[in-house]
TrEMBL record:
SMART domains: Mab-21. The keyword Magnesium does not apply. PANTHER family: CELL FATE DETERMINING PROTEIN MAB21-RELATED (PTHR10656), INOSITOL 1,4,5-TRISPHOSPHATE RECEPTOR-INTERACTING PROTEIN-LIKE 1 (PTHR10656:SF40). Belongs to the ITPRIP family. Keywords: Membrane, Signal, Transmembrane, Transmembrane helix. It comes from Prunella fulvescens. This is IPIL1 protein. It comes from the Eukaryota. GO terms for cellular component: membrane. It is found in: Membrane. It holds the Pfam family Mab-21_C. It is a single-pass type I membrane protein. Residues 260-310 form the Mab-21-like HhH/H2TH-like domain.
């Protein structure tokens, strides 16, 4: 339902923004556990899609890293620059160059630039973009076939577009995130932290490290959700017909929830296990063995106080998943670094592992 709706909306979006200088929405990408084929017990029931935004004519996007900080929680600002369109004007396009025409002529003959509508200063504003995008969906709704059979109600959110679709007793919650692609890669900066980023990689963190800081309206969170979803599709094409890798993930995130290990920790561990254990061994008859393999891998990570980020700096990433050049040069990021710094947190994690093993 979500995928079909987004494709219908995209067709309408193309016409809606064609005569303006607003960002250009691209084809939506399903992200998160629901689209990857598994969902933890604490899943909020929201189907999330990411809509990449391209700059309109006469504009360019440039990503600026806000702080070096924790690599897995980096934020960027999207600087908007005006670009020369004189050549396009010479080819007969009805497009005045923002750089080489007078302000008076631009004001009389052309609509406002993106800098004047959705930016704060020179930077694309998440909250202004969110408001514009919700208005775009609202205006497009009556032009899509789904409007004849579904009822749409918007939900308040300042950094994404959320709504509920209902038809009789059936309802679907949808959240549209929007973002900017880093070059030609599968890494994006997005309007709101994605599903895995909303919870820390492990529950065993100090209260100081766990404090959530409100994001500025011009801050966009770096997201690896598209790369991870692409990895699961890559694996699915090579696994046996009745593979159990997603069942393993569901066991650890649902049946064994409440043991202190977050769903993003289990997801990372399972993704690593899929690159270590031969794919031919993930058949249903080897389900129990694969559960113990995953447990053993987690145990080693806890003992060494090191769990490497699966995307950043990983040497096991399939070649079809594209990373920005800067990310390819990074050292593998340790998601258990806090356990090495905090002996008390490490002891708590080892005790939780013992309880998990017993269960």
């Amino acid at each position: 339902v979500t995928a079909e709706l987004m494709e219908s909306l995209r067709r309408v979006f193309v016409d809606s923004v064609s005569d303006s200088f607003y960002p250009v929405p691209q084809e939506a990408i399903g992200v998160g556990s629901a689209f990857e084929g598994w969902s933890p017990r604490e899943w909020d029931g929201v189907y999330r899609v990411l809509v990449p935004l391209n700059p309109p004519p006469g504009h360019a996007f440039h990503l600026e890293l806000n702080s070096a900080g924790q690599m897995a929680a980096r934020t960027f600002s999207v600087r908007v620059e005006l670009a020369c369109t004189c050549k396009r004007e010479q080819l007969g396009e009805k497009l005045l160059c923002f750089l080489h025409h007078s302000q008076e002529e631009l004001w009389r003959k052309q609509k406002r630039s993106l800098l004047e509508t959705l930016c704060t200063g020179s930077y694309l504003d998440v909250e202004k973009t969110s408001h514009w995008f919700c208005q775009l969906v609202r205006c497009s709704w009556l032009h899509v076939p789904q409007s004849y059979s579904w009822h749409l109600v918007f939900q308040p959110c300042s950094r994404s577009c959320q709504f509920q679709l209902s038809r009789g007793k059936k309802s679907v919650m949808v959240e549209i995130l929007f973002g900017v692609r880093q070059g030609d890669s599968d890494i994006f900066v997005v309007s709101q932290p994605t599903e895995a980023q909303k919870g820390s990689c492990s529950g065993f963190v100090s209260s100081q490290a766990a404090e959530a800081k409100s994001m500025a309206s011009t801050a966009w969170a770096e997201s690896y959700a598209v790369a991870e979803a692409k990895f699961f599709r890559h694996i699915a094409r090579q696994l046996p017909c009745e593979s159990v890798h997603l069942k393993c993930l569901q066991v650890f995130t649902s049946v064994l929830s409440g043991t202190g290990f977050s769903s993003s920790t289990w997801k990372t561990v399972v993704m690593h296990a899929l690159t270590i254990v031969p794919l031919s061994r993930w058949s249903r008859r080897e389900f129990a063995r694969r559960l113990w393999d995953i447990m053993a891998y987690l145990h080693c990570c806890l003992q060494w106080k090191r769990l490497e980020h699966f995307v950043l700096g990983s040497e096991r990433l399939p070649a079809e998943i594209s990373l920005p050049p800067a990310a390819q040069r990074l050292e593998p990021l340790n998601l258990f670094e806090h356990l090495a710094r905090d002996p008390a947190a490490h002891r708590e994690a080892m005790q939780a592992y013992g309880q998990l093993q017993f269960r």
